[in-house]
Sequence to fold (900 residues):
Amino acid sequence: MIVKVLFILVMIVACVISEPRFTIGGIFYEDAEDLKQAFNVSAKTFEFNTLVAEVPKTGDFLHISDHVCEFAKAGVVGIIDGVGGQATELIQALCDTLEIPLITIQQNEFYTLDWTLINLYPSPIAFNNLLTQLVTKKEWKEFTLLYVKGYSMSNVYKLLEMSTQADLFTITVRELSGEDYRDVLTEAKESGYVNFVVDCPSAYLEPILSQAQQVSLMSDEHSYIFVSPDLFALDLSRYRYGGVNMTGFRLITLKSNNRLWDFTSSFNAESANILEAENLRTEEILIYDAVLMLSDALYKVNVTTQELDCEQYGSWAYGSTLLNFMKTSKSEGLTKSLNFDGFGQRNKVIVDVLELTPAGNQSIGTWDGDKLIISRSKILATEIGEETIMKNKTFKVLIATTPPYGFIKESIFKLEGNDRFEGFTIDLIGKLADMLGFNYEFELEADYGKLNNGSWTGMIYKIREDKADFAICDLTITKERQKGIDFSTPFMSLGISILYKEPSKQPPEMFSFMAVFSKEVWYYMVLVQLGLGVLMIFVGRISNKEWQNPVPCVEQPEELSNQFSLANSVWLIIGSVMQQGSEIAPIALAPRIITSVWWFFTMVMVASYVGTLVAFLIVEKNVMPFQTVDELYEQKHIAYGAKENGSTVDFFKYSTNPKYNEMHATMKRRGWIVSNNDIGVEKTEKGNFAFFMESTSIEYTKERHCDLIQVGELLDSKNYGIGMKKKSPYKRYIDSALLKLKESGEIQKLKEIWWKEKRDGGKCGKKQDKEQKQLGMKNMLGAFVVLGVGCPIGLVIAIIDMMWGVFKRSVKYNTTFKYELIEELKFALKFSGDIKPVKRPQREASEDAEKVDLERKDELMSLRSLRSERSSDTHRTHHSHGSSRHSPMSIAFARRREYS
Ligand code: GLU
Fold:
């Protein structure tokens, strides 16, 4: 018993708690079913009780005050006015007295500032601001304003003002009256007007649009701005492809708007028609926002309801507080931020700016309440996923069983229809169908098609004769085929190349050590050594320090000797190349720099050589009987072929290169043309057969036939496309869908799957390029550059050194700088004679001359005998400088140095 009582109590409490606390009233026209429905759905969402009053459309508002009084008696917390116009004035007056918050959802022509209400519909101020910026952005110099008779031009008065004040644009105003606007529209057309701003209630939109189309005012030269935010709630599909530019506004955002989806599904649940969220009209959405605002306010403001009697002029104590709270609370509704001014008007409204394109409605920017931000981004029709003319149609698609583009599926079950096939193009057409919403049926056709004696064959024939709609396989876009059919944008690029069996490996050749460096490198090495030899001799001769006293025990030697003879220089250079060194050691700075740079160069070259040599001596190489098509043409032992009736064989047939024509003739004569790629691959695998194939197919074959390789470069460059009838209306959809698939990497992904994974893909693994790469100039250039920089630096230093010596001598011997310089250069450039007399001042020289006169005679004999001995040795050229004198000891020393 106690349990029973407790259960009943709990149920009562639960009922009391779950029961909606407040009641709201709604006044609508009798036939405004959708508004009433929106009201009920919203009230249910926010847990309100509802009272609905209906008024006849005839304009008989006599009972309106009765309805409001009934609402007051029921203690409503707010009234939503779905009627608008003059009725609002009446409702507002009563609500004002009763202090019941009134929310309206329409633009009101009768509105005056002393009304106390909240209007959720964007105010004329909002539209004026938005329109002026939009027209300015569009840079219209003239436009026609179309407005409906009986409605004020409150939304466009700023535009009218602008046209009179500043000379920005010219406005022509045209009034649309009655139900037939064709005359006005035809007149506008004949006057050559192309830009229009249409300000009308949403009910007028459809007739205006259809009549404008009837009078051909909806072509690509015409642009419209519609003020009504309901434009894009209409079905505009029939205007989409005419090229007309239509701009309009939308108060809701469709993207990630869960509240909107919930509202739409609740709305649809109660309705016979199923609407998409974007097709909901502004008024329906604003009803939701009105109820939401009331709910938010009641959540924050504590109120108690009151039953009011109109007769007694009662008023609700919380009414004005609630109304003021709503005006300032800035809640977020379906129509974004709900902001009001002191008069309850919505001057700052956030609006999406939309444009109608062939791809459907596209958002091109936003109005943030103050500023228009245009962020036009092109979205493909396919991306929007809207209807295209291909939707729900069934097309016949020709395919071929050429791997990997099409295969017959292997299955233990009996497969039927499209299920029988798989492959790259099968998946590709599937993706296109998903995007464009069409159905398809495959038909096999092995012959891709060509022009044969004036008539088309294969796929091309079938498409031309309407026996099929599309052809998708490795169908090459060729000039000839393009005469017969249209092709989509290419989905794959390729070129002709040669498939050939990898030849057996050969052991390294006898002189493979020479192959480490390319010929170029060897030539440059020799050249550099010769150049460096000459440079070393010259630099050695002009560097003062290199002229050394040959007899160190004689303090004032008569001659100086130089170690940089031709033989010594060459020896020094070769010694370092061979990494053996030599006893020649440069003394002056310049030769030292040059020698160091040379040592560095040789170090790099030798290290690179040794490092690569090992690989060259052990790696066995493929010896290709041919590397290019020309070489294949020239040899007589290897057969070659291509697929019959394909673009590859046609390439040889119609080429401007006579060699290729001859190859085609040979292929034909010898029966080397095969009926499909599979046979070509089989023949190639048997050996001694080169198969001309498209590079994409070679790539596929190589992945599965590990002994086959591609030889040589591509002979041409072309593409695959989807074939369709000439001037096909589907081309633009297929093109944009293909582009989208390409840009998103989907086609590449499909290629990876069908080339590298499915059907034995990846069988051969990664083929290692075992062939050791020769070191060419490209690899060794750095070392040459170091040498090229170091040597000039050494040369410059040597020249400075020489100049300094020349200068000192000219001072010492009281001669001119020029004279000494010429003397020095003459001597240096002789490139012979590594003994140089020491020059002395005139006086000292004559004393010396006497002193040594006697000695000279003695030495003369021995000097002569030495000279004659040396002249027979061409490699050791010694030079006696003019009147120079040599002591036997010095000569002997110089010879020793030279030899070493
Ligand atoms: N893709 C070629 C065509 O469309 C077939 C293959 C070939 O000729 O290599 O004709």
Notes: The radius of gyration is 49 Å. The CA atoms of residues 534 and 566 lie 8 Å apart. Confidence is low (pLDDT under 50) at residues 12-17, 378-387, 852-900. Residues 448, 474-476, 643, 646-648, 693-694 surround glutamic acid (CB under 6 Å).
